[in-house]
Amino acid sequence: MNILQESCILKSLNKNSKSYNFTVIAFLLVLLLAAIFLSISIGSVKISFPDIVASIKQADQASETYRIINYVRIPRTIAAVFAGCALSVAGAILQSVLNNSLASPSIIGVNSGAGLFFVLIAAFFPASIYLSTIAAFAGAIVAVFLVYFIAKKTGASRMVIVLAGVAVSSFIGAITDTILTLKPDTVMARAGFIIGGFSGITMDRVAFAGIIILIAFFIALILSYDMNVLALGDESAKSLGLNVIGVRFSSLIIAAVLAGSAISFAGLIGFVGLIVPHASRFLVGHDNRIIIPVSALIGSIFTLLCDLLARVLFAPYEIPVGIIMSFLGGPFFIYLLMKRRRGQLYD
């Protein structure tokens, strides 16, 4: 690939100036900080910013405020940030490498595969936190390649991939429900896991998965330029010297690792991986080098705000965050189905 070809590719994918992209990212960072503060501050007990700062400085274990912040609010906030980032970036990768605007971890079966393997570990090896994380992204990998294999065998159109995902999700969901029925004493909050949420989350559950998510995120950034080339179509990408199979395989693995890691502590949260990549493309265009960090930021903000709504809408009662996301994601998915005929890739 020569310099002229590379320049043409970049210009076609990213029509925004560097200053515009920088401004968007800076603005999203400010919003993320504000969302983090709100997540720590608001709940069944409201805590002001001065009280938060004073409590953290004093680190008084006897203080109720410190215990709420340190053992409830901070782990929950970090979990929401990691889950939103991971699922959004996974969705952006899947939509790019599968050339399908409807692809997302929840739509094409990635969430279901990760959930099945997580439930298996929770049912038979309940004491192993780290093993459950590894099992979750192993299940995600199995699911994404099963869907891709079915789609390739039956004609890998956009709608076939979605339908294959629905079929795989239904089948895997039936296996998961069978295990939960036969093992009712499974050490997990069954309803909370199936719907998805952050209630009762601890740093022990988030720490290992968070490290995996950070590593996978940086690998996704490294692969982002190759994903740009791949988005041009297989034949065009091959003519430009890209190893299409290798890039697609690596990208799908990274997407599965991201989604599986998030599911291991957040449960089967849906739709964030569908909504956020579209919002990112609306803001910054189709350059994956920009879409991936922007999706990470918007996904974190979106998940934090949805979790906040889940806590305060019916206070003092709390609903799983997955319900809020389903209310938002369901109509958005219908909108995409109705609009897809008007375009080809990211309509």
Explained architecture:
There is one protein chain. This protein is mainly α and 347 residues long. The chain has one domain: ABC transporter involved in vitamin B12 uptake, BtuC. The protein is 76% helix and 0% strand. The two termini are 28 Å apart. The C terminus is likely disordered.
Strand content: under 5%
Count helical runs. Answer: 14
CATH classification, class level: Mainly Alpha
CATH architecture: Orthogonal Bundle
Low-confidence stretches: 342-347
Write out the CATH superfamily name: ABC transporter involved in vitamin B12 uptake, BtuC
How do the SSEs run, as a string of H and E? HHHHHHHHHHHHHH
- End-to-end separation in angstroms reads 28 Å
For the report, how would you describe the main beta sheet?
none
Based on helices, strands and strand pairing, what is the structural class?
mainly alpha
What is the oligomer described by this structure?
A: single chain
As for the number of domains, it is 1
- Calculate the mean pLDDT score and round it: 82
Radius of gyration: 20 Å
Q: What is CATH's topology name?
A: ABC transporter involved in vitamin B12 uptake, BtuC
**Record field, number of beta strands:** 0
**Residues in helices, as a percent range:** over 70%
What keyword list fits this structure?
single chain, 347 residues, mainly alpha, ABC transporter involved in vitamin B12 uptake, BtuC, globular
Compact summary:
By secondary structure, the protein is mainly α. Helix content is 76%, strand content 0%.
